[in-house]
């Protein structure tokens, strides 16, 4: 491939691609987990969660493709094997268990929030350290999508969390 001349050094591009490949691995594992829960959810929330997760894994699938294409636009090649995804992901698998629907939702919220935190760091690095505002902007859009997906899932189980937070707030006020 011809040398790319877009105002970034080879080192800057390589560092950005490392971040993008980590994101790609995280997105891939999250898609697998979301799809698995989409298939396996049971109970009164089946239809609602089944539909929510279908919409979410479609968004995640688009992000996987877009992330790989961003890497290609930078003149590099994305990782693309299960082994490399597992080696590069920062998410945790939960093999050999089948949680109830509430635990499924909670696990996915944790994963989305983990990805959001990573994306914030990667956005800062891309913009401030590697001077790649294009990738920073690209990642910002993906981060916003994960913020919305996490919000939707938190809202699904929010009643329990809200009641607990109200109790904790009251305890803090009483102690003050």
From TrEMBL:
GO molecular-function terms, A-Z: ferric iron binding
Matches recorded under InterPro entries: DPS_DNA-bd, Ferritin-like, Ferritin-like_SF, Ferritin_DPS_dom
Pfam family, one: Ferritin
Stretches assigned to the Ferritin/DPS domain: 18-158
Superkingdom of source: Bacteria
PANTHER family assigned to the protein according to its UniProt record, in alphabetical order: DNA PROTECTION DURING STARVATION PROTEIN, GENERAL STRESS PROTEIN 20U
Protein family (similarity comment): Belongs to the Dps family.
Protein name per its UniProtKB record: Ferritin Dps family protein
Organism encoding this protein: Cyanobacterium aponinum (strain PCC 10605)
Organism ancestry: Bacteria, Bacillati, Cyanobacteriota, Cyanophyceae, Oscillatoriophycideae
